[in-house]
Amino acid sequence: MSSRRRLFGGLGIAAAAMGVGRAAADNPFATHLLALQLSDSAMEKQREVLNNANTVLKVWPDTASIVVVAFGPGVELTFADSPLRQRVDSLIAQNVEFDVCMNTIETLKRDTGHAPVLNPRVKPVPFGVPRLMELAGKRYVIIRP
């Protein structure tokens, strides 16, 4: 094996170990698995979800895998113009995954005539509830603050 190939292979392994470029739900080193359900548009609920994610990261900074699943009115947190956008982006930078239900987005598009502009850093998923069920099957604890 060439030294160049070993170097880049080693960098890839190091990046994977540090969580670089990997979504929260794909972290093979995580031992504390949390999925936060957000199906409410109330600002206090959105803040509570973000606060819960921050708390878990404080307690288990290296071993937590956190996925926020937004559907129904909860998708507002994932909009590009969300008043909490800076906090969402900060959590994404810490490998928290934000999933947005595209079924809800399509419903909003039909009802209003246009789709809301989403934060480009959120992950679209076809449906919110099945995504939570998928995460539960992977041993994630589902919390609805």
Automatic annotation (TrEMBL):
Segments spanning the bilayer are: none
| InterPro entries associated with the record | DsrEFH-like, TAT_signal
| UniProt-listed SUPFAM superfamilies | DsrEFH-like
The molecule here is called DsrE family protein
Native organism: Acidiphilium cryptum (strain JF-5)
